[in-house]
Amino acid sequence: MQTKTVRVGALPVGGDSPLTIQSMWKKPLTGLSDELVAGVNGLAALGCDILRFAVPDMKSAEVLGELAGRVSIPLVADIHFDHRLALRCMDFPIAKVRINPGNIGAKWKVEDLVRKALDKNVPIRVGVNHGSLPGHLAKEKDGAEAMLRAAEEEIGVLESLGFGNIIISLKSSDTESTVRANRLFAGRFDYPLHIGVTEAGPLIPGVVRSTLAFSSLLRDGIGNTLRVSLSDTPEAEVITAREILAALGMRVKGIRLVSCPRCGRAGFDVHGFLALAQNRLMSLDKNLTVAVMGCAVNGPGEARHADIGITGAGNKVMIFKHGELARTVAEENALEVFFAELEAL
Ligand code: SF4
Questions:
Q1: 337 HSE (CA, 13 A, CB side)
Q2: 134: pLDDT confidence band, cut at 50, 70 and 90?
Q3: Which of 297, 318, 331 has most ligand 1 atoms within 8 Å of its beta carbon, as the pocket-test mutant?
Q4: Which CATH number is 5-247 given?
Q5: CB 3.0-4.6 Å disulfide test: which of 36, 44, 108, 160 passes with 73?
């Protein structure tokens, strides 16, 4: 569906721009540190295009503001109830503010906030969540319709103040309601949509629910930016989003990882290797297929078909590059040698 384009920092969202991946920082912003900067940069390297932070107090607003000056990825302030936090965040190079006008309170507070967003050219994401609908909609039986009406009301408040620099999300923990609400919205509005199943659950249920929702919506051309919400790390959210887009043929760059499930024949600890290597692999700016295999049954064949493959073979580990055996190493050296060979590709 054709939507308007909204700029989140330097990044266009909507219109003809590519789909973007978002995640949310999961710890409180207690202070600016090298560790925090490295964590944000690590997520960016993994493929996170936009990163959101909870801003529950003024200290968090200050830290987020300072952080925005230290990283290049667009940062989003997530604010509820207290409009002064949004005003403070917009003193810094914050790329977007997520608020719901309905929970900001008095009209003058919303007006103050919108005036500053207009002045600073900061877009607002209105995040409609099925779990926190306004009181008059909370008992509505049709969750998708209720979310749509909430979005209409929130947009109405912003538009009445001359503000149209808006991104919308309509999220439920129920996949079907999420899909229907977004379809209804996309049929009536042309604001860019941030899609996601909220509170999707722990890793496995969350991946399944998010995959179902995203594949339905994205195949219909609905959705401009997405977040997988997992009770897991932001890294897992970003990798899941990447894999969904790759499986749908909508994002083809980066590492394509093939690995065996491991069985009693494995002479090489595939799981242990991947636990150490996966995020590092996924952070590489290379378009390659990588195979990680356990034994000589399927390992050499799969490893040969990949750009680079590693497989157990008896008590050794073999590394293949472009179909040729490149190295045979002891397992304790496998990680180091594998990455050295990969970097050289
Ligand atoms: S490659 Fe070997 S270890 Fe891995 S699942 Fe197949 S048979 Fe088992």
A1: 18
A2: confident
A3: 297
A4: 3.20.20.20
A5: 44
